[in-house]
Amino acid sequence: MVVSVQQAREWIRAAQRVAALTGAGISAESGVPTFRGAGGLWRNWRPEDLATPQAFARDPKTVWEWYQWRRRLLAKVEPNPAHFALAQLERNTPGFWLITQNVDGLHDRAGSRKILKIHGDIWMVRCQVCGAEARDERLEFPEMPPRCRCGGLLRPGVVWFGEALPQDVWEAAEEAAAHCEVLLVVGASAVVYPAAGLIPLAKSAGAKVIEVNTEETPYSKQADLCLRGKAGELLPGLVE
Ligand code: BV8
Ligand code: ZN
């Protein structure tokens, strides 16, 4: 492992343009349950039962209870060394972009600024009727499901299954992946699309792909380097 960490450090240090694609695994050491792992968010519920427009239309109260449960948990956790390492990498590398599938806000809290939130942000809410979008960090709403001043139903500002990703953010993520010299894939199971497609996109554009994950993923074989271990332990060593 030492050799490959050293090799990863060299590739990252030599690169002008670096991109990172993060998934739930980067927040695991902060105490945030991942989706698929043991005790994962989806152990108790199935995503199609909660993270879809159909689920919300059928039972907005239950869907909001799941999101408030997650928001309350997130309000109690802190970014971990992996989040801080990526914020440091951004400061070291002018051509750095952070592409995250996570909606938890931990990258912001760790100091990252160039963040492309391709699946939205759990701290944002949007009105189904008037479209008003705002940051809303209330852990208790006066009523459930919460309503907009216009009377319309508020929804979490995240991308559900079956929904298109925010166009401008997704295009910027494709641009970053297609032009980077190194793509760091951290804590992503790489089974959700189109996000996972950023990995072969970067690879086909000539980037070195470095996977940081405790387990194998469908893209491990295509990666130029696989650092098998915890992001919070490995990432600080990759960054000056
Ligand atoms: C779309 C926000 C079309 C909400 C999320 C069949 C085949 C292929 C694709 C599809 C298909 N059927 C349907 C689809 C499309 C679907 C999809 O990909 N489904 C999958 C399940 C097959 N995709 C969509 O629906 C997307 N939209 O396609 O729209 C369209 C186009 C135009 C117009 C209209 C419509 C939307 C997908 C976004 C869904 N929203 N999140 C919320 O969070 O509530 S997805 C959510 O799950 C996350 O955002 C993330 O993307 C995904 C979970 O993945 P991970 O983040 O990787 O987390 P996971 O738990 O899976 O893995 C954790 C990893 O970390 C593991 O590898 C583990 O080993 C590792 N790890 C754990 N601990 C550590 C660690 N690594 C390092 N250190 C540690 N300590
Ligand atoms: Zn409204």
List segments where confidence is low: pLDDT < 50 over at least 5 consecutive residues: none
CATH topology of the largest domain: Rossmann fold
Helix amount: 25-40%
Spatial strand sequence of the major β-sheet: 3-2-1-7-8-9
Bound molecules: ligand BV8, zinc ion
Judging from the principal axes of the Cα atoms, what is the shape? elongated
Output the CATH homologous superfamily of the largest domain.
TPP-binding domain
CA radius of gyration is 18 Å
Give helix and strand order, one letter per element, not per position: HEHHHHHEHEEEEHEHEEH
CATH class of the largest domain: Alpha Beta
What is the SS-derived class? Answer: alpha/beta
Q: Hey, roughly how much beta strand do the residues contain?
A: 15-25%
Number of domains: 2
Number of helices: 10
What about the largest sheet? Answer: 6 strands, parallel
Report the CATH architecture of the largest domain. 3-Layer(aba) Sandwich
